[in-house]
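B., you asked whether I could sanity-check this one before it goes into the benchmark set. Here's the sequence:
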Amino acid sequence: MQTRGTTSRHRFVRPVQTLSALLLAVGLALTGCTGASDSGASSTSADKAAAPGEDAGAGAQSGSDARGGKGDQAAAPPKLTTHIIRTASLTVQVKDVPKSLDEARTVVENAGGVVGSETTDRDSKGHERSRVVLRVPSDKYEEVLADLEGSGKLIDRRAKAQDVTEQVVDVESRIKSQRASVARIRELMDQATKLSDVVTLEGELSSRQANLESLLAQQVSLKDRTSLATITLSLSETPVKKAAEDEDPGFVDALAGGWDAFVTMFRWIALALGAVLPFVVGAALLLLLWARFLRTRLPRRPAAATATAGAGAGAGAGSLPVAPPVREEGGERD
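And here's what the prediction gave me:
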């Protein structure tokens, strides 16, 4: 009988404990000290004590739902920091290139940036021009860009933005994994007893350390390019406008114009002669060759007859003259 009484008392105690837990949870909810998660947790504990098995699983699910209702912000994963590589190129026309270049340096240094490579030269017309690479913090990028644009007449502006957040996260994750891998290899080396195992582990350690160093170099490069924006500034000198000339030209102007025309005409004549001269020389050579060819082809009879006539004349000059024959008349014949 005592055993039955004790059992019955235990049966009555469990509902009382459950009811007390529920009342306590309701009271806490009404006072605002805790949220719905505490009541859910209390009810879950009571359900677990009252009905194990499937009821316990259902209680755990209700408890997790209650904990989720405590605050979505606390359960949500932290937002990733955006990493963006910003680059821009500006072409500005200014009156004084050296002065504008000094002003650009001052703007960049005041913003916490640095001045990179610089190139200065002159164009075919003698106008000075400079090209300089500027590195500025990403948070000062827009401000510095606006100041540089306002230094003169903006000719060209190009800006690019490349999001490398995924690449940065990937590199960081690979660095962590690689560091853990290197640490494991070192532990194995400490535990190795055979020389062959030590040699194998040393080769593996060298390979993984090389990969780790490569990843660290990528991380440094990404950090540099995302923390500092790159601006390429090109400054060109404004061409000086010529003074307006008088409407009525004077004697000096006419003389200068005539001289320019004369020089221009002489230049064109020289150019024409230079262009025609090769053809003239070629034609003269062809005519000379043709004349020599004709001489070799002509017959030499006239030359021989002339030589014979000359020889006869020389022989007659050395002897007495011969009288021509006398023709007889008709009467004398009879």
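One thing to flag: The chain has a mean pLDDT of 73. Otherwise nothing jumped out at me.
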